[in-house]
User: What shape does this take?
Amino acid sequence: MIVVMQQGASEEQVRRVAERLERAGFGIHISRGVERTLIGAVGDKRLTATLAVEAMEGVDRVVPILQPFKQVSREFKPEPSVVRVRGVPVGGEEVVVIAGPCSVESREQILATARAVKAAGARLLRGGAFKPRTSPYSFQGLELEGLKLLAEAREETGLPVVTEVTDPRLVDVVARHADVLQIGARNMQNYQLLREVGQASRPVLLKRGMASTVEEWLMAAEYIVAAGNRQLILCERGIRTFEPATRFTLDLGAVAVARHLSHLPILVDPSHAAGKWRWVGALARAGLAVGADGLIVEVHPRPEEALSDGPQSLNLERFGQLMAELSALARAMGRTLGPAAEAPGAGAGAAVAQGGSLGRPAASAG
Amino acid sequence: MIVVMQQGASEEQVRRVAERLERAGFGIHISRGVERTLIGAVGDKRLTATLAVEAMEGVDRVVPILQPFKQVSREFKPEPSVVRVRGVPVGGEEVVVIAGPCSVESREQILATARAVKAAGARLLRGGAFKPRTSPYSFQGLELEGLKLLAEAREETGLPVVTEVTDPRLVDVVARHADVLQIGARNMQNYQLLREVGQASRPVLLKRGMASTVEEWLMAAEYIVAAGNRQLILCERGIRTFEPATRFTLDLGAVAVARHLSHLPILVDPSHAAGKWRWVGALARAGLAVGADGLIVEVHPRPEEALSDGPQSLNLERFGQLMAELSALARAMGRTLGPAAEAPGAGAGAAVAQGGSLGRPAASAG
Amino acid sequence: MIVVMQQGASEEQVRRVAERLERAGFGIHISRGVERTLIGAVGDKRLTATLAVEAMEGVDRVVPILQPFKQVSREFKPEPSVVRVRGVPVGGEEVVVIAGPCSVESREQILATARAVKAAGARLLRGGAFKPRTSPYSFQGLELEGLKLLAEAREETGLPVVTEVTDPRLVDVVARHADVLQIGARNMQNYQLLREVGQASRPVLLKRGMASTVEEWLMAAEYIVAAGNRQLILCERGIRTFEPATRFTLDLGAVAVARHLSHLPILVDPSHAAGKWRWVGALARAGLAVGADGLIVEVHPRPEEALSDGPQSLNLERFGQLMAELSALARAMGRTLGPAAEAPGAGAGAAVAQGGSLGRPAASAG
Amino acid sequence: MIVVMQQGASEEQVRRVAERLERAGFGIHISRGVERTLIGAVGDKRLTATLAVEAMEGVDRVVPILQPFKQVSREFKPEPSVVRVRGVPVGGEEVVVIAGPCSVESREQILATARAVKAAGARLLRGGAFKPRTSPYSFQGLELEGLKLLAEAREETGLPVVTEVTDPRLVDVVARHADVLQIGARNMQNYQLLREVGQASRPVLLKRGMASTVEEWLMAAEYIVAAGNRQLILCERGIRTFEPATRFTLDLGAVAVARHLSHLPILVDPSHAAGKWRWVGALARAGLAVGADGLIVEVHPRPEEALSDGPQSLNLERFGQLMAELSALARAMGRTLGPAAEAPGAGAGAAVAQGGSLGRPAASAG
Assistant: This one.
């Protein structure tokens, strides 16, 4: 880090800062400019956070140089990570689509959806059993019953199941029924929960908080990895901005940045960002084109009767159309969509894909 | 709510929406304009959230008319609520200052701080025992030991204690040692935690999430009240915006709005918004002037050695100066600061205070 | 619009609001719910803005129902508009790439760039002559000399020229040399300038302001059309959010929304959003996939020597690679990139394109 | 500035960056850490903006150390500036209130308002003649006729006049009639306009853009000062955030920061931030308490009939009440409100004011 002293800071103030940094184990270098004195400090970046140098007299501000995350970074592990969910690789050449309803509402609903999204090429099934809802008076999910229905849908269709866990006390029971533990945007900095899923034996899907920077997102990921769980998938789902036309603003630049900084697979959720089914397809295509490893899309057999997020859910027909579009786009990018056998990888994309497919993580990314 | 149909929506589509609303128990009124047909629906506002009318064919959008919160609203209870914390009234004529370190670090540190802030006029002591930190490698708090030290500081000084709870499993133990359960900004929509503190027998201090609207903040409050706990205090602590100069952007307009919409007491936290001690005083004064019922301020005997939030902590001397400034401001607004005996309420404020003090909640607020 | 009265508003207050609306020419309908009285008002939406009904006693708020823009809306003109720039159609089946340096710096620089981007498939040349710069001490552009160099580059390459105009006094001279008048993000609500370009005989490229909603963007477009110029192209270039990793947050959801609401062609500028060349390609692909009619990309022969925006400029080699990627993506979406003869439109995209290409404006968009 | 090289950057890349910086006149220092090489560059900060070092191979990013503004900074001029408007000092001990309607609408309206706000203690009169409006169909102001009416109101009441100028072609005519040239938020980065008012002989009131950082605001101020006009007043009026309850989010932290960084006087506009008259008073008090040198408040004799901004305008009675509140607050802070003779400066504030009044700029601000 670089400590920038105030204009006119005294020699004594500079000396005190330098001493404090040295005592903490940093190597230091003092640089005296015409207007400012700078103190460069080299050492373990994890120490930085615990030093309140900015509170010392004569200090203007502290400029961090190194990234605060470590194990999730590409500097730590240059080659891309692939997370396998019951045999489905997330983060490889295949683009993986996760689809299903916002909430599990009934046996019929989840089974019908599971069959349809599988037929259209989805590789995992999503569905909420414990729902975080803005209003205490809204439907809160089927809870344990919902988990059982998801497991039943997996038995029938073979699709591994992704579901959200919102309470550290529930990590065990959710992990018994589901294949991927989802941490929702509102819980991205629920550190108790991150530590619990960090000790679970299931892959984790970590959504970006709606007001979290890419750096904070990767720090949340670092919590999970530091607790022992390396099976981690990131997911961008839109951030909060001043624009009211969409529910959130999908930040695809953040996907490009996270790809550059981290080796973890990254998905895009176009449904929550759009807030309306009408714009889900366009954002799904954009997410795939920016280089995401997959998408998580809300699908409901009858969106107008959904108990949650109906307005942003695709019906089965629209989901099928979207999958056809995405399949062509994936091929154009040198990737595949859906089980390998169904995507011969021919056509326009072949030429482009020479030397590596677009958007996929590569160790040599510039 | 008002359902706005798309331009060119068919009669059949209008009929289906109307039928669906009637089946759900709403009274409806259809209004056909030149360009648009509107369907007004009158009924229990809590039903609205569970109806996916926006997903129906021909619907452009749904405009809610009623506020989605109920028990925390002024329409439910026009007169302001006063929450008593071991005899200290929050939400009354007195402006209450809560002060103390970000984290409890040692017996000496918390006792020295408690004595000093009491002497300066603070009425409650704050201090973190379980710390949510952005980095897994940062100091995470003294945990149970921290709670015991807070209780000891209360025994000695008589100051009731405010501390954060971050895990539903810890609500009981925190409630045994502390007098106010704080829900931090990152947990404002941690609904499992809200339900737990909603069943506790201690007052709750609910900070606004850094990306939460006033409406969502009041909905989070509604969760706690709906679970049974009416002893609730709101706290604005800054929101996330594009401006990097301060840590967060203190949203004092939200304090004015929340005051208008809700009967709950509201505090302001100038420390987390400022991010630097240099701007804490100015924001504290502004928070008091906008009409907050109190402030929560980070104070540390030696900020440059603090294990967390040192840069934004006032040292004891600066805190004392701030309290003198605030005391004069409070009097000018017809309120008092600190224990009643110390604030005779004379001076400049007396003239202004005729007909009610400034910024205090009044049943007749326009 | 709907006027929502306060709870407890008097009959007299309701009557006064109703009378005022009637006097202004609105048809009204009063609806008395249990909790609130609503007054619906039907009439010329352009009247709404001039009525301060929200300032009347007893009024809680006013909810607009109709969009405030008119001539730029799809309700006014359902079929998509195509703007022809010296024969190049913007808004049709072809995806149009505009490329060139941030600033015109020298004869050699602009000619070399023009030749290279043309060879790679760009259809228009961009280059700044009058530069709005954050610092008064930065390079401010070659001004008139820059315009002449752009015209020279057009003579040699045949590429029509896009350049920014920042001052109403300069509209005439810029229009004499350039083919498209660009209004930059900082001037989106410079209404004097909008009126001037609204009277010019050149097409206008209107960038979205960095803090402007889609509605405000379309209102700015309405200014230009209302002044008489229907040759208008929109361009999304990123908005300001809390995320510091990219220069701006590219809001592709806004592209989908603007496409739904307006018949105007829409471009995406990935360069200013990214802020670094490293992420320009990913955002360009995403912009194309979301359905934009084209892209505007900063290209410089030697970015490290650029006098402005060097960090986000692609060099000639990287731009060539990007065009190959985009060409494959365009085909997959049933569109073409570059002059028609070069893009046979066969391959993977053909199947998808049945019934219309992806993302292109269609009169029947749902 | 500090150039942070990528991990693994080659010696050759480091050498090239160093050479380029030296050629540009910077003194450089290379620091090789375990993970990163840093290149510190010391020299004229105004050079920095023109160097595209971030585009060079092997460079990760560039960290600026010095502020990019110069003449408006406290480092350039430590003591606070006082701008005199026809004898009224802005930036001194007195808190100055500017009041008046959004738009000049008629002779009767502006004269009645001018008389009333003067009687209540306002020191300057505001009123718009050329109005920037979101919709081309809204009232655009009385233009030249409005300027003449403002001048007439000044003749009668003696109140100097503040009015907005939106077009570089109109600076001369506005300067002939008005005493302060206001640059609105939408024009904060209209550099052509900034240069024109920078050459005018009237004081300028520069509002912060709704998406501008404090640094950009001060850079816009630097444009005006660099063009020759040192009579400059800053004004915070709210920024754009995700919160819809108020029209904008008043950023009082930015006032504290700008005060720390710059010697220029700073006002607060509570009216545009609030968007509703109901919250103007609370934000006005907060603005005064944070340390602003004054306020600019929208006042209208009959807000419900205003042609613009009626909902956020105070009527004459409410403005009078607000001035009484503000007067008491000002005294408590050791300042005065209104002409000196009316504010003896006694009372509660006297004790606090020892050693300087609160919030006023002082050369020794920490």
